[in-house]
Design a protein that fits this description.
The structure is a single chain. This protein has two domains: about 5-10 and about 260-380, Aspartate Aminotransferase, domain 1; about 15-255, Type I PLP-dependent aspartate aminotransferase-like (Major domain) (Aspartate Aminotransferase, domain 2, 3-Layer(aba) Sandwich). It is about 40% helix and about 10% strand. The chain has helices at about 15-30, 40-60, 70-85, 100-110, 130-135, 160-170, 240-255, 260-280, 310, 315-320, 340-345, 350, 365-380; strands at about 5, 65-70, 90-95, 115-120, 145, 175, 195-200, 210-215, 285, 300-305, 325, 355-360. The strands form three sheets. A seven-stranded mixed sheet has the order 2-8-7-6-5-3-4, with helices on both faces. A three-stranded antiparallel sheet has the order 9-10-12, covered by helices on one side. Strands 1-11 form a two-stranded parallel sheet. Strand 5 (about 145), helix 6 (about 160-170) and strand 6 form a beta-alpha-beta unit.
Length: about 375
């Protein structure tokens, strides 16, 4: 087995149908969507149809979908405008959010003096809901709650409906980074009172460099990028029509095959858990990975019983064997620092051991899992 890809939480393999759609649009529908001639109208039609496709699935208005380059841009747009334009003075979040949120909060504190409040977490990375409710009852400052739906490193899921009800009841705004859930879970925005969510196509087998933000109608958000009036005036710049078309195809296929692929991937994950328990004594699973009701079916974060000295060679050895995985989020894999997520939930002893994130898709097989387990078993026993 020459190569095994278990890093779909970082980026997923594009489906053939998506590649074909992107190529077809690049070749035949190359007009600027802001142009009024037929070429431009054809491009504009693709964008608006994609907006409708997304809004129909998510239960929102097409005008509430804004295309971006991905989640980092969308998170920045929402958080910055909430403070700058909506008068938010306090942001309630957690220390295991994606750095697109955490670093933005840092900058907003420096530049605008906002008050950041970070919720307590249990050993699985779940927030303290009672603490959140207590904090929200103090409405002396306009507040934004920013909590990701699914943690990208450990897979722990937020009770997004519960948080939405708490924020609505207390007059706060609610932003959720849903990058690991859109395309993998159903989400009905007509029933879940979240004000802002974000998504990236490359997390559900679409192209990189394109995503979207859901911005609830009449929110008052303003653009961070100035120029033309594209995207309802919220995101200036000529749209990447081919990428948006690819996003639409990937989005449609993700939900068309959702239940079938969810069952298949969950079966793979459970098979992996059982194999690791059987062949690697002392293995641990970080977060709520082994609880299907509290964790996504798409990833597994594994703490291996290896000494710190030997751990330095683990990822290198896996790479030599053709196994792609991650020690944390891909955004942090080049950093010498350890995982900011694991540092918040693990004890000192387990932090010294290597933790690896394996993330799955419908392209993976049980044979690949067998191979990975065998490689790990051989490395640990040396």
């Amino acid at each position: 087995m020459n190569s095994v890809y278990f890093d779909s939480a970082a980026t997923s393999q594009m489906r053939k149908e998506v590649i074909d759609r992107v190529y077809e649009v690049m070749k035949n529908t190359f007009g600027n969507p802001s142009s009024t001639h037929a070429y431009g109208r054809s491009s504009k039609s693709i964008i608006e149809n994609t907006r409708k496709t997304i809004s129909k699935q998510l239960g929102c208005n097409a005008a509430e979908i804004i295309f971006t380059s991905g989640c980092t841009e969308a998170d920045n747009l929402i958080l910055n405008s909430c403070v700058r334009d909506l008068g938010v003075q306090r942001i309630i979040s957690s220390k295991i959010e994606h750095h697109a949120v955490l670093h933005t909060i840092d900058e907003l504190q420096k530049n605008y003096g906002i008050e950041p409040v970070f919720l307590n977490l249990n050993s699985c990375g779940e927030i303290d809901y009672a603490q959140l409710e207590s904090l929200l009852k103090d409405n002396s400052k306009k507040t934004l709650v920013s909590l990701m739906h699914i943690n990208n490193e450990i897979g722990t899921m937020l009770d997004i409906e519960r948080v939405a009800k708490l924020t609505q009841a207390n007059g706060a705004l609610f932003h959720s980074d849903t990058v690991q859930s859109v395309g993998h879970f159903d989400l009905d925005l007509s029933k879940v009172g979240v004000d802002f969510i974000v998504a990236a196509a490359h997390k559900f087998h679409g192209p990189k460099g394109v995503g979207f933000a859901f911005i609830r109608k009449n929110s008052g958000l303003q653009s961070l990028i100035f120029g033309g009036q594209q995207e309802r005036g919220l995101r200036a710049g000529t749209e990447a029509v081919h990428n948006i078309a690819g996003l639409e195809t990937a989005f449609e296929l993700a939900y068309q095959h959702l239940e079938k692929e969810k069952k298949y991937i969950l079966d793979l994950k459970n098979y992996f858990i059982d194999a690791l328990k059987k062949h690697i004594p002392g293995v641990k699973f970080n977060g709520a990975c082994t609880d299907a009701s509290k964790s996504t079916y798409t990833l597994l974060n594994v703490c291996l019983p290896i000494s710190p000295e030997k751990a330095l060679m683990l990822l290198f050895q896996l790479d030599l064997k053709g196994i792609a995985c991650s020690k944390g989020s891909a955004c942090q894999s080049g950093s010498e620092k350890g995982s900011h997520v694991l540092s918040e939930i693990l004890n000192e002893e387990d932090l010294k051991k290597p933790s690896i994130r394996f993330s799955f898709s419908s392209f993976n097989t049980k044979e690949e899992i067998d191979y990975v387990v065998e490689v790990l078993k051989e490395f640990i026993s040396k």
